[in-house]
Amino acid sequence: MFQESLDLKPSERAVFKVAGQLMAGYIAKHGCPSEDDHQAVVDWCINTAHQMAQQVDQQVVSDDELG
């Protein structure tokens, strides 16, 4: 079986993880999306995870930023 490896930065891994959790939640609630809706659901998960990450970055001060 072919397994592609991804070289993601830590912030990209975090967004990927949250997007996966959103997708899992969607599937748990609605079942698997149809082939027609699959890409739209994936895009929604990624965009939502990215927006969440941006909001956290703007509103939360990390220990590194405190100096």
Please provide a written account of the structure:
The structure is a single chain. This protein is mainly α and 67 residues long. It has helices at residues 10-30, 35-59, 63-66. Helix 1 (10-30) packs across helix 2 (35-59).
pLDDT < 50 runs, ≥5 residues:
none
Radius of gyration: 15 Å
The rounded distance between the terminal residues' Cα atoms is: 47 Å
Structural class: mainly alpha
Largest sheet: none
Detail the topology: elements first, then pairings.
Blueprint lengths: L9 H21 L4 H25 L3 H4 L1
Short description:
With 67 residues, the chain is mainly α. It has 3 helices and no strands.
Task: Spell out the key features of this protein.
single chain; 67 residues; mainly alpha; 3 helices; 0% strand; extended
